[in-house]
Amino acid sequence: MSSKTIMTPVLKFWGFKQHPFDDRVLRGSELELFVDRKTEIRRLQNALSNPLSGVFGAQGAGKSSVLYKLEEWAISESYPVVVTQMSGASENLLYREILAAILQEIKAGKVKVLAKLKLKVDQEIERVQNSIKYTSAVEAAGEAGWKAMLNLTLKAGIKEQEERELAQHTEESALALIKKIAMHKKAPFVVIVDNLERARFLLDDEDAYFRFVTKFSQTIDGMFSDLGVPFVVSLDQIFADRINDNLPGTEEAASFSFGKLVELSVFPPPELYKLIARRLECRKWEGAVEDFVERNAFWALVGATGGHSRRAFAVLREAMELVAERSSDKTIGLEQMRTAIAQCGEKLDEKDLLILQFIEANGARSSSDEDFSKAVGLSRVQRGRRLNELVEKGLLRVEEQSSGKTKKYTYFLVKIDEDG
Ligand SMILES: Nc1ncnc2c1ncn2[C@@H]1O[C@H](COP(=O)(O)OP(=O)(O)O)[C@@H](O)[C@H]1O
Ligand SMILES: [Mg+2]
């Protein structure tokens, strides 16, 4: 593995064979980098008794990685898993893409079906793949594109009769075949549809996207209940926001169809720290995490990216390059982190940074504590608002204490575990 990767200047400088902060979906052996999300995974595991469940969260929050962590678990429990990534070519291909993935797993012998289904796997794979090609071509270039495609295959020597047969699968026929397979399976299997949130970019507007997912969820919920073929999909934050916006009628329809919708929020500071520590460890960093990134710089990273893993990695990569360029010590300091944050188009609020640093150094605080107000400044009201914003972002926790009639709120950080 390592001999195949290019030793870029930044890797050479830092002494890594592989970049610790490459942004990639974790799957298979890469899942060694996976941290946290225990509750979410448990909820997803238990959701598998429903025909349909999902994860939702911002882009880069870790939806795909969680789905693959679920896959790993299901396989370890001896349940085959079929994974499809919505390709993003067209929303009108979804069921065919799912069918194609299921057929591949049948061909590979992982999903097993009863003989009486009389499934001609190779032929069905060809049918569905051809139909995916046609639909993509038609949607990409209109009728002309379809004709061009047809000409091509005709030239390649396929007779028109075969042509028609091969092109037969539609979304309806694909769905029907998926159902038949589910009914004739030898043992339960899981279907994961990653990137379903891509439909949002294919459809004109949010309404259409919402309707698309609602329809999909009702279809799956209606057709696959009690079949032992649970579907798990990824959705973005917008979908969940819409449900919460309480559209009369649609809300119930959508949320009822999902056995469970599991939210993936950003990583709170201790988890982000763990995430960094794990990556450094797996990439054979020899020092401590603090040798790699100073604590103040870490707080700046937390403040700027809000614990959003994809964005945090981008800033860390940039900071590592800045350090390498100046060939200073192999440590990311606050100043380099500030520059990297700016270069990545992120914003660091200096007051937020002060608050986080202060609470880390001095422990839990109420917004009215005197030393706190001296260090941070701002009016009491403004300070209170800031603190609540940090709580909302998941960066601080708050506890309410009432003595007599007065209520006091103390804000604290969950301690960062030095051992990773
Ligand atoms: N639990 C986790 N532990 C470690 N890294 C993670 C975890 N979840 C996500 N990541 C990392 O965060 C980035 C975004 O994750 P991804 O699964 O692609 O998010 P999404 O599908 O929501 O866009 C990837 O670089 C991935 O490696
Ligand atoms: Mg994803």
UniProtKB/TrEMBL annotation:
Residue ranges annotated for the Orc1-like AAA ATPase domain, each copy included: 34-200
Query: One Pfam family of this protein, by short name?
Result: AAA_16
SUPFAM superfamilies to which the protein is assigned, alphabetical: P-loop containing nucleoside triphosphate hydrolases
Q: Which domain of life is it from?
A: Bacteria
Which InterPro entries does this UniProt record tie to the protein?
AAA_16 (IPR041664), P-loop_NTPase (IPR027417)
Q: Could you tell me what this protein is called?
A: Orc1-like AAA ATPase domain-containing protein
Q: What is the lineage of its organism?
A: Bacteria, Pseudomonadati, Kiritimatiellota, Kiritimatiellia, Kiritimatiellales
